[in-house]
Structure formats: C-alpha cells, structure tokens
Amino acid sequence: MNKKLASIDIGLKRIGTAICLASNIVTPKTAILRKNRNQAAAEVDKFLNEWEIDTLVVGYPKSSDEMQRRIQHFVKLLNFDKEIVFQNEDMSSVEAEELMKGDIKYKRDGRIDSLAAKIILERYLTYLPQQQ
Q: How far apart are CA 114 and CA 99, in angstroms?
C-alpha cells in the first residue's frame, strides 16, 4: 500500500501545501491564508484529513532559528497523530519563484508557497530509500 504524503511550507502569511498520493507524483494544492495560528492549524488539519494523509513533511529552514521555533510551535498545534517529518526547505521559495518567472503579478496568491511545498516534498521523496 502506498503512503499518502503531504507537505506544508509554513510562512507568516500563507502556508503552501502539496500532496503525493501515488507513485511520486507531487501536486501543489491551494495555499492556506493565515489569519491567526489556530485558524491556520485547523485548516491544515482539515486539509490532512480530507486527503487521508499518512505522513506530513514539514519544510524546515536550516538557516533560521527563529523560523524553526515558530514552525515547531505551529506543528504542535496540529491534531495530526500520524508521522511528521522535517525536511530542509532552504532555497525552496527561491526555486519556486524561478519556476514562476513571468507570473509575478500572482506573487501573493499562494502559488509560490504551494510550489515551494511541492519542492520540499520532492526533496523528501528523492532522499527516501526506494520502497518496493
């Protein structure tokens, strides 16, 4: 049985989301707009339940202690009792912006955030031992 994976890229204004339901194909989903922590955590929980996710991959910046602390706090707010793994997200947003070049007017609609979540999940899948 294939595990269903999701990733989130936690930002201060938006949370990018992506899923992988089968055979390493990662799809960015609609970003979650953050009004406050509890609302955002509730929406992430709803997203994870809706897709019946088994493993949550959380983007984790190696370069920012402050963001690491915020991300750990946010993850504690989730009612997700399955596997949670942290994946280095450094440069994923820059990579996402590169992919979106030419679509700059859409910068604030969350697509870059969800593209970053997609990149984070693809990185995680790349480093997973191949399961058969």
A: 12
Which domains are delineated in the chain?
5-127 (3.30.420.140)
The amino acid present at 109, given as its one-letter code, is D
Cα-based distances in Å from 89 to 3, 46, 74:
21, 23, 16
Report the C-alpha gap between 14 and 1 in whole angstroms.
Answer: 32
- How long a stretch of residues is the chain? 132
Question: Which burial class, exposed, middle or buried, applies to 97 when counting CB atoms under 10 A from its CB (0-12, 13-18, 19+)?
Answer: middle
Number of other CB atoms surrounding residue 38 within 10 Å:
9
Encode the chain (132 residues) as per-residue pLDDT tens digits: 578 999 999 998 999 999 999 878 999 999 999 999 999 999 999 999 999 999 999 999 988 899 999 999 999 999 999 999 999 988 777 777 777 666 555 556 778 889 999 999 999 998 776 543
